[in-house]
Design goal:
- The structure is a single chain.
- The chain has a two-stranded antiparallel ribbon.
- It has helices spanning 17-25, 27-30, 39-53, and strands spanning 2-3, 8-9.
- The chain is built from three helices and two strands, in the order E-E-H-H-H.
- 52% of the residues lie in helices and 7% in strands.
- The two termini are 17 Å apart.
- The radius of gyration is 13 Å and the shape is flat.
Length: 54
Amino acid sequence: MIQTKRLTLIPPSENDWLILSELWRDLLARQYLGGPFSNEKITEKNHLFKTALA
């Protein structure tokens, strides 16, 4: 968890994964962040995320 006086960021839950994977593919959402991720990269992130939850 990352926290400041005005903002708290928590790791995404397993339920958040579908939303995150769609954002990573979305051209408009990613145009300012280096472009969309490939399906391979999203699968890799999914694996890392699920490993971190275990």
